[in-house]
Write a structure and sequence with these properties.
The protein folds into 3 domains: 189 residues, Phosphoenolpyruvate Carboxykinase, domain 1; 275 residues, Phosphoenolpyruvate Carboxykinase, domain 3 (Alpha-Beta Complex), CATH 3.90.228; 87 residues, Phosphoenolpyruvate Carboxykinase, domain 2, CATH 2.170.8. The protein is globular. A hairpin with a 5-residue loop joins strand 21 and strand 22. Helix 12 packs antiparallel against helix 13 and helix 12 packs across helix 17. It is of the alpha+beta class and 598 residues long. It is built from 17 helices and 30 strands. Manganese (II) ion (MN) binds next to loops. The site of oxalic acid (OXD) has 6 residues, from loops.
């Protein structure tokens, strides 16, 4: 096999696999990604020459680029995402399944000669800090420079990874192909440590380190090896005495994980000396530490965040992170300044601009009811920014040991049912609370927007095996953590009868975090209700906020009738998950029903 540059490993197993993939896809050249500045600069220049990327104003946005995907390839595609375990029942009822042998056969036809005339890039990468107990390694083969440049931001990629590659590495093959949506496949073979992705070029489908590896494959590895891979942000809350407590929080896609992870405390708290530090905004890997606590790392190295709505007020830290070394995807291109813009950045839409589809854009025609066709930026347009750019990045970001979690927070986007915050009674009850999480669908995944769906632990699209087994793994892990984090549920999205949000959210979510951490420290009481412990109305600090106690009372109230109505829906969902739902969760459901009836 002829590599254009020096291979970064001599491991035969790795080299044989690359050879097999090259024989199938037939690229003209094969290039190892060493991650050097020189190589990255050359790739950027090449991508600009072919039009794959646009170099932005280097004074205002140094090292920043713009990329547009095909208009039919702008989000993850759950219907085209498959878990290919040998036995169908191991993938479960929630995942799409194809038998591995059949899947390999189908996809081989699509991969065949797909890289003729192209270069195959070999990207060695680590999820987690190299050499750490948490870290896992992978190689992604791709024919897309855009993928290479994103992977270099999102993971720890390049030369240093070479020496860690052995037979345990995760084999990822991506070919852009024809982008035919009907032949788009995002396939996971957890038993073979393999990911095959073809006919897409959208981040969530092709940056194989992220959802494919760090969640779907990793959740499977975690079950077998006794750890957990979760769709969680990780943040540290520093109190005035300098102590930092960490929490992990799981919300469905596009429910504000990045905003919470980089929260700026309200002035009242800032003046007192409170600070929030971001460890991660999307994925957490969790292990039991030798001290009996649950420790977390963020396996990623960058943020693949949703651009629209990000602004100086909603998330100044994320915005700051995008001011250099960032790749923007499907945002609006301001031709006057050669910079980027998106809905919700400010109220000054560019007058001469190209929209996310690559067409001249007239901001005056924007129609909220038809965002896809009238907005400058696609609702799921993204920034890929290095984590190190973030002004509030935690100094534990690179710590191979991770951070110990005091609390786990589940959340959803629910207009009525869930109160602002409640605490579960135990790890088992907390697992139940996670299993019944629900939210409205958003633009991050293709399909209908605004429909309520169950999204357990925010992992519905990301568990690499049967959902019932996944819940069992949560329950089993609880038994292995001598000093587990307490489990909470929040809902920032409660509305009044006119559909307006009644909680201000964003920085003010700090007030809820404070209650949560005070509960963990046993510093504050709570009201025991049918669903869990709820704050007393006087225990959420409203200082400096124009919110009436009456409204807070409503935010904390429990609408028993809507909970009772929800029970039927939960039962249906458990039935859909099927035979492997643990009895312990049915028991929790029964107890909830009894408490609601009282
Ligand atoms: C993401 C998602 O991109 O959850 O993080 O869809
Ligand atoms: Mn996510």
């Amino acid at each position: 096999m002829k590599f254009e540059n020096k291979p970064l490993t001599n491991n035969e197993y790795v080299l044989n696999w690359i050879e097999e993939c090259a024989a199938l896809t037939n690229p003209d050249r094969i290039v190892w990604i060493d991650g050097s500045e020189k190589q990255i600069d050359e790739l950027r220049a090449e991508a600009c020459k072919t039009g794959e990327m646009i170099k932005l104003n280097q004074e205002l946005l140094p090292d920043c680029y713009l990329h547009r995907t095909a208009v039919n390839d702008v989000a993850r595609v759950e219907a085209r995402t498959f878990i290919c375990t040998k036995k169908k029942e191991d993938a479960g009822n929630i995942n799409n399944w194809i038998a591995p042998r059949e899947c390999y056969k189908t996809l081989k036809k699509l991969y065949k000669n797909s890289m003729v005339g192209k270069t195959m890039y070999v990207i060695p990468y680590a999820m987690g800090q190299l050499g750490s107990e948490f870290a896992k390694y992978g190689v992604e083969l791709t024919d897309s420079i855009y993928v290479v440049l994103n992977m270099v931001i999102m993971t720890r990629a390049g030369e240093a990874v070479g020496k860690y590659l052995d037979e345990s590495f995760i084999k990822g093959l991506h070919a852009t192909g024809t982008l035919d949506p009907d032949n788009r496949y995002i396939c996971h073979f957890p038993e073979d440590k393999t990911i095959w992705s073809v006919n897409s070029a959208y981040g969530g489908n092709v940056l194989l380190g992220k959802k494919c590896f760090a969640l779907r494959i990793a959740s499977f590895l975690g079950k077998t090896e006794g750890w957990m891979a979760e769709h969680m942000l990780i943040l540290g809350l520093q109190s005035p005495d300098g102590e930092i407590k960490y929490v992990g929080a799981a919300f469905p896609s596009a429910c504000g994980k990045t905003n919470l992870a980089m929260l700026v405390p309200p002035e009242y708290y800032r003046k007192k000396g409170y600070k929030v530090w971001c460890v991660g905004d999307d994925i957490a890997w969790l292990r039991v530490g030798s001290d009996g606590r649950l420790w977390a790392i963020n396996p990623e190295n960058g943020f693949f965040g949703v651009a629209p709505g990000t602004n100086e007020k909603s998330n100044p830290n994320a915005l700051a992170a995008t001011r250099s070394g960032t790749i923007f995807t499907n945002v609006c291109h301001d031709l006057d300044t050669n910079t980027v813009w998106w809905e919700g950045l400010n109220d000054r839409p560019p007058k001469h601009a190209i929209n996310w589809k690559g067409e001249p854009w007239d901001y005056r025609k924007y129609d909220k009811a038809d965002k896809i066709n009238t907005s400058g930026a696609h609702p799921n347009s993204r920034f890929t920014a290095p984590a190190k750019n973030c002004p509030c990045v935690s100094d534990k970001f690179d710590d191979p040991a991770g951070v110990p979690l005091s609390a786990i927070i589940f959340g959803g986007r629910r207009a009525k049912t869930a109160p602002l915050v409640y605490q579960s009674f135990s790890w088992q009850h907390g697992t139940f609370v996670g299993s019944i999480m629900a939210s409205e669908t958003t633009a991050a995944a293709a399909g209908a927007i605004g429909v309520v769906r169950r999204d357990p632990m925010a992992m519905r699209p990301f568990v690499g095996y049967d959902m019932g087994d996944y819940w069992k793994h949560w329950l089993d892990m609880g038994k292995k953590i001598p000093n587990p984090p307490k489990i909470f549920h929040v809902n920032w999205f409660r509305t009044d009868d006119e559909g307006n949000f009644i909680w201000p959210g964003f920085g003010d979510n700090m007030r809820v975090l404070k209650w949560i951490l005070d509960r963990c420290d046993g510093k504050v009481g709570a009201k025991r209700t049918a669903i869990g412990y709820v704050p007393k109305v006087t225990d959420i600090n409203l200082e400096g906020l124009k919110l009436k106690r009456k409204t807070l009372k409503e935010l904390l109230s429990i609408d028993t009738e809507s909970w009772k109505a929800d029970i039927a829906n939960i039962k249906e969902f458990y039935a859909l998950v099927g035979k492997r739902v643990p009895k312990r969760l049915y028991k929790e459901l029964e107890k909830l029903e009894q408490r609601l009836d009282k």
